[in-house]
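Supplementary Note 3. Input sequence used for the single-chain structure prediction.
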Amino acid sequence: MRQYILILTILTLLFSLALTGCTNKEADRRLLFNKAYFAEAFGFELRLCEKGQEFWENSGRVFTPLNNLPIFFIPSEINPSPPYNSLVFVHKEAEAANFSDDVLVAWPNEVVSTRMLRGINYLIRHEMIPELELEIFGLSYPLTMYNLVDDWEEMVVFWREISFRDTARTWILETSFFNDENFLIAKEFFPNPEYERQLGWVRRTIWRSDISATEGFKLFRTSGSSADDMQAFGDIMRRISEEGLSVEEALKILEAEDTGE
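The predicted structure, written as discrete structure tokens, is reproduced below.
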């Protein structure tokens, strides 16, 4: 009987260890996916060595390597031998030289990552999510580029929390495109979350043109457009695109229409 209990105890222990190993392995895999997801969300830049470039060219994937990061370093049934064995974050491109070619190195993009941080800091500064405190995540205001690299695990948890909130995600993306001044103008024209689609359309329209956000909002204001009626802004932006009008010419046209000249 004692021998039977001993065998049963040993088997139970072995099963527990195996289960723990599987659980830890799955947790590690999930963390790697989160790391890749975070790098994509904040627009990190990548060092793709020759084998990485070749792998990407033969992968048949669309979009960019950044949008497909996991396939580069996480083994799967479809791709059991990815070209890299890990993903490492550094602060600057120059630091990538410290790692071997089997390491996928990524660093924050000076433009995209900065814009994202600006959007998040604006959200925090104006208490747009008052119940969300950075301290809960082991972070402090203001968030900087160093947080993206040195505290990426904490940032992943924080980002996943706020990115699931539609309004917060929308305003972060809008602020990341507009500076604080233009963001306040956007809030003036689109004060409610229900205007999310309209603001997104204005942002995309400006983004696709060769004009700045400041110039775009000046045109929006001068055209007399609003969240409920954006036709005048759409018409002048179309003329800029089709006729090659400059911003100054477009403003003169709008001002003339306003005075009835």
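Residues 4-22 have pLDDT under 50 and may be disordered. Strands lie at 45-47, 86-89, 103-107.
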